[in-house]
Each structure stands twice: as C-alpha cells, then as structure tokens.
Amino acid sequence: xDAKVRVIEIIAGVCEVTPEEITLESTIGDFPTWDSIGxxxxxxxxxEAFNINFDPEEMMDLEDxxxxxxxxxxxx
Amino acid sequence: xxxxERIFENAKLFPKKLAIIAGSAEVTYLExxxxxxxxxxxxxxxxxxKGDRVVVSASKCVDFVYAYFGxxxxxxxxxxxxxxTNPVRLQRIEDCAAPKLFVGELRNKGERNVIPFxxxxxxxxxxxxxxxxxxxxxxxxxxxxxxxxxxxxLSFFNQQAAAEHINAFVGNTADDVELLALPxxxxxxxxxxxxxxxxxxxxxxxSSFASMKKFYAGLDLYNVxxxxxxxxxxxxxxxMSGAKLANYASRLKYIEIGSAFMPEAEKRKLMEMLPTTRIxxxxxxxxxxxxxxxxxxxxxxxxxxxxxxxxxxxIAIFSEKGEEVANGQEGELCVAGDHVCSAYWGQSEADFRKxxxxxxxxxxxxxxxxxxxxxxLKSRIKEIINVGGKKVSPVEVEEVLNAMDGxxxxxxxxxxxxxxxxxxxxxxVGTLTETDDEAIKKYxxxxxxxxxVPAIIEHIAELPKTTSGKLQRLMLK
Lengths: 76, 477
What we know:
The complex is a heterodimer of chains A (76) and B (477). Chain A is mainly α. Chain A has helices at 3-15, 36-50, 56-59, 65-75. Chain A has 4 helices and no strands. By secondary structure, chain B is α/β, with parallel strands linked by helices. In chain B, helix 3 (62-73) links the parallel strand 3 and strand 4 (77-81). In chain B, helix 1 packs across helix 2 (29-45), helix 1 packs parallel to helix 6 (187-199) and helix 5 (156-170) packs across helix 6 (187-199).
C-alpha cells in the first residue's frame, strides 16, 4: 500500500470520516476531531504505521495531508 | 461595575479601539456594543422573557460574543455549550435548563430548531438595560461524576468579582492583546474573554492550539502580550515547536495557566524560556473560578503548591466532620468568597447547601495549607478524568461500555500520560477478552467523542466496591 493511501486512511479514521472526504489540502481544524489531540493521534499513528519518527523541528510544518505524506515519503 | 457595564463604558471611552480580532474580522468596542444590542433586540423580538434560558454554542467566533452578551443585555440566562456536545449530554442539559432557544452551531442538534448566529440580529438596537448583579448570567454545565451534568449558576456579580480579581492578579491592562486558543465553552476560556473585554484590552480568537503555525503567526501579527493555556497545551507547544516560544520572551507579559497537574520540571522549563513573563497558574473550578493563584517566578520556592488563596477569597481545610483543621493537617479544600456560584440550576437551596460547610463551598479536593499560607493539593476526590484539558466523566464512558453486549460492568479512571496529562483507562468485567479491545474502542467511538474513548482496556474479574455496592474507582488507580 503506498504512503498516500495509508496516511489518508489514518487521518480519515481519526477524523471519523470516509477517506473520500479527505483531500490533499485537508488540514487541522477542517473536521471537529482534527484538533490538537486529533493531530497528535494522527502523527503518532503515522509514526507507528511507517516505523518512523518526526523531529520536533519538522513537526510544526506538518499541518495538512500533503505535508504529512511528503514527510513520510522522505523518510521511507 | 459589571463586566457588561465595563464593556459599554469602554465603548464610550475608546470607541475605535479593537476589542476582538478573529481571522480577517476586526471589531472595535463601538461595533461590539452595536452588535450586542442588535442581538439583544433579536431576542426581544423573539418574545423571550427575562430569565428565559438560551443555549448558545460556544463557537470561537465574533458572532458568539454578540449572541452571548446580547442575551445578557436582553435579560436572558445564557447556557454556553460546546458545539460538539454529544446527544445524551445535550438532552440532559435541555431537560435541566429547559431553554426557550438554541443558537449557533450544534453538531448533534437532532430535531431541535437551532438558530444560526447570522440570524441573531435585528434592524435596530435594543435599549440598553443592564442586568442586576444578583441576576443569573450563565449556567455552565460541569462534567458530573454521577453522570448527570450539574448546572452551575453564576450571577453577574460572581462574574464581575472573578474578572476584577483575575485582572488584578495577572496584571492585565487596557494595552494588552491576548491570544485566546482555549475553548470558550468552559469556565476558563469564557472567563478570559470577560476579563479582556472588561479591561478594555484586545482579544484575538484562535480556533485552538492545534495549528502551531497559526499560533505563532497570531503572536507575531497581533503583537500579542499574553495568552492562556492548560498544562496539556504546554506539552503540545513543546512537542510541536520545541523551544520556539523562547523567541517571544521579551514581548509576552503574561500567561495564565489553568488548574491541572503540571510537573515541576515543566514549570521550570517554561520559566527558563520566559524569564520575565508573569506566569500565573490558578486553582479553581467552575463553581469557584480562580480561588487560588500563584506566580511561577514570584513563588519559585513553592512551585508545587497551588499558591495562596486570592485576596477576598478564603480557602480553608475541613475534616470530614466539617470542622476546620489546623495548618499542616490534611482535609477537604473549601472555598468562600463572592465568586462562589449562586446555585445549581434546578436544585433546591437545601440540596445546593449540602455542598457547603457553612459559607465554604466543598471542592471535593484533598490537601493542606502550610504555615506560610501555601496550599498543597494531594488528590482530587472527584474522579473526573482530564484528557488534554478536556473533562471526561467516568460515568459517561461506563454507561456506553455497559450497554455493549458481553460487558457486565465497567469502571473508568484517568491514568497519567506524558502528552495528554491523563488518558482514559477502562476496567471491564464480562465475557469479552483482549481480542475484542479494538471492537470495544470502535463501539465507544460510535457513541461519544474520540478523546473519551478508553486508550487502555484491562479485563478483570470484578470491580472494587464498598459494602453498600458503591463503585470505588480510586482503588483501581
């Protein structure tokens, strides 16, 4: 499964929506559950799913779906 | 002077001054009172009478501010609730408060007719009629440990007393610009709004701390002098942005931190990053907002206390028999002062008074006062779980769990978590096993908010109970 599909699946799960409702531009605050708790959950699930770690310095830049996919792909 | 009177006074003194910034919207004090009066007129035109309740979704937008203060000027009692309030809680709030109107955006509105904010306006302004200090301004519903939310009734005088006191301790002035990223459906965030506007300062509304980019952009763009947060916000700021906050040390005059456990090491980290900022932490509850205060830099030798009782407020320690105990002895923290709530909505005065020892309101927290007057909390008797600043009633989660096939009964507690402060742990009795844990979480997720879903599940043979059968959650800690 490619990174994009898996990341979108994770985000959709946390946001309680279907993957079809998530676009590359979807970002923090677009869904009620994508708040700070939701954001941390997304990032930690992504870290776990791909067995990677985000540094604090790069975390601040991970705000929308495309940011997260790009960061994952760079680490794979 | 009431908070509302001060806002109108500010509009006379400096009409063109910015009161609120929310995204691209900038509202002066003059515009603010104009819009408040239009909202008040809407309520009047709708036939609402003095003392009627109006449920307003506490969305972080300027329209909420108009609808909220407009209700007060129209003589109504405001019931601010989270726009995400789940259907069961919403029903319970409706049953208790019996509101005449719902305003704003409610995700789980069901069949209710909810008036959008945009419609809460009129062609002309209402006449300015200030409420009486003893009138009830708001009913704030707490996360009750019994499962039933309690409607804390705060009078205009309670709110005035709280705002004046907070502004005095924090040292707010009319020159301040505050960034508000906390939810305003709770006592803390809503209190900040009242504090800033009554002082004639400027408040910039930010939806949440979730986007650190927006948070720092807000600090820069609006020349922010202070903000408020809860300890879990601090964990989040650090995790997402490392030491970046230190770059703002010279311009941040103050930070107010809400009452939840914060480790000493975290307090010291924040102090090092912001060596000249007045970092205030309060202890309070919806029923008695900011009963005690401390300032990290001034009270460095007592960092793990909750500070001293604030001027005009009394905190005393009582034994279980209701007798005040000497310094150093442990007991229940009890609070007296003009900020203590006036009633629980729908409860008789006699029942309300059961939560008091004389004039002292019983907080349900356990602790002691040392010889210097510093108050130390030992534990919360109340069993509310604090997930990243959001309050979770164990009963609410247990009710959902217990309705699931294969679960006989359950008990939920909060367990420490480095980032969230606490997370929910469920103890389950029944025929389900570890292999069902994911299914259990999904089931709970379908019924209540995500943050309330147990992160940890343990299957046990039986739950600890008293001889009379009362669940003893604290035994599970």
